[in-house]
Amino acid sequence: MILVDLYEDAQGRISGFRVHGHAGYAPRGEDIVCAAVSALAQTTVLGLAEHAGAQPLVDVKEGDLSCEVPSPEAAGVQLLLRTMVSGLEQIAANYPGYVTLRRISEKGGFGHDVSV
Questions:
Q1: C-alpha angle 83-114-4 in degrees, rounded to nearest 5
Q2: Is the entire prediction scored with pTM above 0.85?
Q3: pLDDT along the chain (116 residues), means of 10
Q4: Is 53 helix (H, G, I), strand (E, B) or coil?
Q5: Which domains does the chain have, with CATH numbers?
Q6: Which candidate, 42, 94, 52, 51, places its Cα nearest to that of 73?
């Protein structure tokens, strides 16, 4: 299963996300659920960097992509992130059991004092 953690700051803005795991819908290289989630996450990172000027901090490993947005209040950032979330929610609804989204409220910034 793919797990998507959505980090929200004290103002309720999305300040980052982590996508990790594998859907297991089909064999590696043929999994349309993994491909769709990966495309949304990677396109969002590109949009943040190239169109919102957000300079996201990105870490990519096999089956794991993390993105921290140092300035979630910047113009266009929330639009891009919330559009990604809408797409991920649609995928999760169409392929139940393969993608789970969870919102993690932050109290002290990205990665600090997280609670579900």
A1: 35
A2: yes
A3: 96 97 96 98 98 95 96 94 98 98 76 42
A4: coil
A5: 2-105 (3.30.70.1490)
A6: 52
